[in-house]
Amino acid sequence: MIVEAAQARRRLEPDVRRGQILTCAVRLFGERPYAEVSTTDIARAAGVARGLINHYFGTKKDLYLEVIRVMLTIPEVAVERLPAGDLRTRVDASVSWFLDVVSRHSTSWLAAVNAGGMGRDADVERVLAQAEDAAADSVLVAVGLAEVAEHREELRGMIRAYVGLATATAKEWLNRAALTRAQVHLLLATTLLAIVEQVIPTIVAPAR
């Protein structure tokens, strides 16, 4: 049993080290532009050899793309933990979760959505688009539309537009302080409810 436990710990070590590197990269890329963060900085902050960054992530850019992906992807567990109530309850909880996350990691999240000053880099654009698609799918799950196959791309397009609104609204709150959290919550929850209850039924309703 002791040997098995030791082996299990050794198997976990790479994941722990990878997590340490990623956590430090999220913080540093949130604090400084991409060009001002080196792999040496990240390795020093994580307490690992610089070669481990290449081992786990590849290049500095590969690590940065992973940071964007992590900051903008809604974990499955977040959707699974939503309350099993009515639509309004789940929408309210979903918006609360989103606002909690972006406020807790505001500098890193803002750096990710703004692509850290890298401009229109093709790889960054690809990761941002993938994150947007994944977010749309997660929202569809949250509002109970995951199994709707008809007009699927139209539904995803609507929710992607909503994700864009959520991002822009959160930036108004965090960057400009033009809106309060309560105002952002009201806007996002009301809009999502309207999309699900009023707009989507006109698309998926059977033709008469």
TrEMBL record:
PROSITE patterns: HTH_TETR_2. InterPro entries: DesT_TetR_C, Homeodomain-like_sf, HTH-type_TetR-like_transc_reg, HTH_TetR. The keyword DNA damage does not apply. One of its GO terms (molecular function) is DNA-binding transcription factor activity. Keywords: DNA-binding, Transcription, Transcription regulation. Residues 15-75 form the HTH tetR-type domain. Signal peptide: none annotated. It holds the Pfam family TetR_N. Residues 38-57 bind DNA. This is AcrR family transcriptional regulator. It comes from Actinoplanes digitatis. The lineage of its organism: Bacteria, Bacillati, Actinomycetota, Actinomycetes, Micromonosporales.
